[in-house]
Design goal:
The structure is a single chain. The protein contains 10 helices and 9 strands. It is of the alpha+beta class and 307 residues long. A hairpin with a 7-residue loop joins strand 7 and strand 8. The chain starts with 5 loop residues before the first strand and ends with a strand.
């Protein structure tokens, strides 16, 4: 058995904001991928054990949400099925989302497929199913990561209840500008970071900052990116980066605070959270990737998108 490949995802804009109905933009990242396979041995034993626990959790979901072919799933689990994945866990690039998409694709009854006309209702239904499934991994999931992985299309998030596939401007292979990933070398955990954010939201000044600045800049960044308005994009990304440094310090590993500040001061690059933060990847935006590379010498960088 070799299941289809499911890719990682990168949330370019919308981290934390989408919890409070900002816009968001998520893109597939096919550098990392995973597929279901049988006969786990060695290091894949952990993945098999995780799948067994996940299957037990899926049995608790109401059939009105999603129904599975339990006979087929249990037969494959008995043959030591595992998820063969290169997607790093705890890095904010959707490792659990790809697994959820793979299980749904292989075993769900009456599944909504990528080939049919994806109405808003079908997308919302898929997002709800994926949210319920992925909650096993994070305690609370928006369902966006599996949706992105399953459709393998960029997703524009208008609000919690409104998402749609979207087109993004073509990359410019000759362009100097780039979106890149910076590896923090630390594994992050989503649940504690989201809990901290929700606790901060109980404070009036933090709530006002989210409402009056964070969501406004995030929405503007999404619009700028989709319209290809690069000068405005970098202006708003810088504002967003500064806002995150001022208000989300616990989500930024402490050894990266000065690096974050250096980017803002030199304009060589701007950093932002990739997912919930706390470790994993940090997302970078630069108008000149060579300049950013020189400024971040010694740190492993991966280009995601060229301007």
């Amino acid at each position: 058995m070799k299941g289809p490949l499911f890719y990682a995802k990168i949330l370019l804009f919308g981290e934390y904001g989408i919890i409070k109905d900002s816009k968001g933009l998520s893109i597939p990242y096919n550098f990392y991928r995973g597929a279901l396979k049988l006969n786990a041995t060695g290091s894949f034993e952990d993945s098999h054990q995780k799948l067994l626990a996940f299957a037990e959790y899926l049995k608790t979901l109401p059939e009105t949400t999603v129904r599975f072919d339990w006979e087929a799933l249990e037969k494959d689990l008995a043959q030591k099925m595992y998820f063969d994945s290169s997607i790093p866990q705890g890095y904010g690039v959707g490792s659990s989302g790809a697994l959820v998409a793979a299980i749904y694709d292989q075993y769900a009854h009456d599944k909504i497929t990528v080939l049919e006309n994806l109405t808003k209702e079908k997308l919302q239904s898929l997002k709800g199913i994926f949210s319920a499934m992925e909650s096993f991994f994070h305690g609370n999931s928006s369902g966006l990561d599996p949706l992105n992985s399953y459709l393998s299309l960029p997703i524009l998030i208008h609000s919690k209840d409104k998402v749609e596939p979207t087109g993004i401007p073509s990359q410019n292979p000759e362009g100097k500008g780039a979106v890149f990933l910076l590896d923090s070398g630390i594994v992050g955990e989503t649940a504690p970071m989201v809990s901290l954010f929700l606790k901060n939201m109980e404070q009036e000044p933090f709530r006002m900052m989210m409402k009056e600045e964070f969501i406004r800049y995030t929405d503007q960044c999404v619009e700028d990116f989709l319209s290809g308005n690069l000068s405005s994009l970098f202006t708003h990304t810088k504002k967003l980066s500064q806002l995150v440094l001022n208000n989300f310090k616990p989500m930024i590993p402490s050894q990266f605070h000065s690096l974050w500040k250096k980017g803002l001061e030199t304009n060589a690059y701007y950093l932002k959270l990739c997912g919930s933060g706390g470790g994993g990847y940090i997302l970078g935006f630069t108008e000149d990737f060579e300049k950013a590379q020189a400024a971040l010498k010694g740190y492993p960088l991966q280009v995601v998108y060229n301007f």
